[in-house]
Write a structure and sequence with these properties.
- The chain contains 16 helices and 9 strands.
- The protein is of the alpha/beta class.
- Strand 2 and strand 3 form a beta hairpin.
- It starts with a helix and ends with a helix.
- It binds coproporphyrinogen III.
- The site of coproporphyrinogen III has 20 residues, from loops.
Length: about 350
């Protein structure tokens, strides 16, 4: 029998919908915190296949979600291009910023495969042990990866990256093209290693006006999707253009993905109107409703299920699980969906 997540991504409405949660492997789980403390360094976790494979499967062992998402992180593809990467304690990724053609010229596709090879090995190990669930690989979408590469760290507005796109669109386009090419190497390797679905996280897509959104979000994603259709036609893609708002429909039609993840702020009924019916929707419970649990979580979950019933839908959060989430609430959520 075909796995439910794959049925939904082929355009079928499955009831109750399959469920998994963004950041389902992470700091809210004591078993993750224990491994993290032992390894010391987050990047070491991402690049050690035995550890990353075990962490990927931790939430499935506890809660039996319908999919596992590869445990890794978004700027691994920049590391593959030769940009140094480290994690400051309690912060996100820190990279030496790309601000000029000289900085860009120092990056190269030559060593991507060698550098990301441990991640492919993680995928192989998870694929061998995943059982009936679906294995989802991922990368950062080009615009969001470019945001980190140019800014050099997380930011409220990624002003340096967005200013580069206005002041020197050719340079920014060269960077985006390079990330598209690196992502193709990275994603194809994940698919060859056993990833059954691939997801592209465009966390900062929603900062862009419509013209820039088309140029830096939809177009590069469409290039990746078209190339993946050629080489891996049976591996569906889920795009997550976070905070796309009114651009969601254009993204769904133009990006060439089989599923669109919707963020917490999106009304699911409005998303269902904007997105063509054959494209699956994934989402979009507020991660804080999951922290609250109980009646607020039940009510919010019910609303999403009802709004998307009859549509191909994969239940998920509208953004990643936050560290203060009580693990029992995750168990209760999975039960709630299964009993719908
Ligand atoms: O969902 C999963 O469990 C799979 C693994 C995964 C991580 N990051 C692990 C992680 C995935 C899919 C990501 C994606 C990611 N990473 C995104 C896109 C989704 C989103 O949240 O918008 C982004 C923007 C990043 C970049 C990133 N990595 C930031 C901003 C941070 C710091 C903030 C935070 O949440 O910790 C990270 C670190 C990170 N990535 C951790 C984990 C488990 C925590 C590291 C630790 O253990 O200290």
């Amino acid at each position: 029998m075909t796995k439910t997540v794959l049925r939904v991504l082929s355009g079928e409405a499955v009831w109750p919908p399959p469920v998994w949660l963004m950041r389902q492997a992470g700091r809210y789980l004591p078993e993750y915190r224990a491994m993290r403390a032992e390894a010391g360094d987050f990047l070491k976790l991402c690049l050690t296949p035995s550890l990353a494979a075990d962490i990927t499967l931790q939430p499935l062992r506890r809660f039996g979600m319908d999919a596992a998402i590869l445990f890794s992180d978004l700027p691994i593809v920049s590391l593959g291009l030769g940009q140094a990467l480290r994690y400051a304690e309690g912060e996100g990724p820190v990279l030496p910023p790309i601000r000029s053609a000289t900085d860009l010229d120092a990056l190269s596709l030559d060593r991507v495969a060698e550098i990301v090879a441990p991640v492919w090995e993680t995928v192989r190990r998870v694929a061998a042990n995943i059982g009936p669930a679906t294995l989802i690989g991922f990368s950062g979408a080009p615009f969001t990866v470019a945001c980190y590469m140019v800014e050099g760290h997380g930011s409220r507005d990624f002003a340096a990256a967005r200013l580069m796109a206005y002041r020197d669109p050719e340079l920014f386009a060269r960077l985006i093209d390079l990330i598209v090419a690196a992502n193709l190497i990275y994603l194809r390797g994940q698919a060859d290693a056993g990833a059954e679905v691939l997801m592209l996280f465009d966390s900062w897509a929603g900062m862009l006006p419509p013209g820039e959104f088309r140029r830096w979000v939809i177009e590069p994603t469409a290039q990746i999707a078209a190339a993946m259709r050629q080489s891996h036609p049976h591996v569906p893609l889920i795009g997550f253009p976070r905070l796309a708002g009114a651009m969601l429909g254009e993204y769904a039609i133009g990006a060439g993905v089989q599923g669109v993840a919707i963020d917490t702020a999106m009304n699911p009924a409005a998303a269902a109107d904007m997105v063509p019916p054959g494209i699956a929707l994934q989402g979009n419970l507020d991660p804080l409703a999951l922290v609250a649990g109980g009646a607020p979580m039940h009510t919010a979950t019910r609303k999403i299920l009802d709004a998307l019933r009859g549509r191909p839908h994969i239940f998920n959060l509208g953004h990643g699980i936050v560290p203060q989430t009580p693990p029992e609430h995750v168990g209760a959520l999975v039960e709630l969906i299964r009993a719908a």
